[in-house]
Amino acid sequence: MTPLGTLGLAVALAAVVGCGDGTDVRRPQAQASQQPSSSQGSANTAPPSAEPGGPISPEEVLAFAGLRLPAGAQSVQAVVRPTVLPSYRITLLGDRSIVDGICDQMGGTLRIAGSDLPANEIEALGLSAQPPQGSPTCASSRRDRPRVQRQVIGVAQGSTMLITIHVLEFPAR
Which runs of consecutive H residues, i.e. helices, occur in 36-111? Predict the structure, then answer.
């Protein structure tokens, strides 16, 4: 199964299982290990706990995802998604080169979306409908921590793009 399909399956599972008002949300706990020495984080990096739907540090979520904030990113925000699985959404504004740079960091294959995203991925990415034809997207798991899945999409908004990164961690087997 492709990383994008796996991500879609996990989001569908989270939607079916649900979590009511979010009080039983489980997220990775911050670990007392050393801080990552690189800007991409380490395999043990995890964001701190935060209230579902509430803000969380974009830098910590990016480190957890094994990514770094691209130069030129603006209006960067992150939230904890209220799901059973640890799930985070980062939004930022930028241009197409930022989407390309994030996909390069992820090692994901860039593809062009066009009314073919499953409903669960649309919801996970915070979109209200199918992205416009030609929206760049990619997905992959973290190489050193494959349970951490990442997906990014850029949606044109005038002369800029709204870029969304969804990060999800599957439970250990």
Answer: 58-65, 96-106
Instruction: Please give the Cα distance from 158 to 173 (Å, whole number).
Output: 44
What is the edge-to-edge ordering of all strands in the sheet holding 111-113?
Answer: 74-80, 87-94, 160-169, 145-157, 135-142, 111-113
Instruction: Compute the distance between CA of residue 150 and CA of residue 166 in angstroms, rounded to an integer.
Output: 6
Element housing 6 (H / E): helix 3-17
For residue 144 the two structure tokens come to 């050193």
Tracing tokens 């990164």 back to the chain, one arrives at 165
29-87 pLDDT tens trace: 332 222 333 344 555 555 546 676 667 889 989 999 999 998 999 999 998 887 878 88
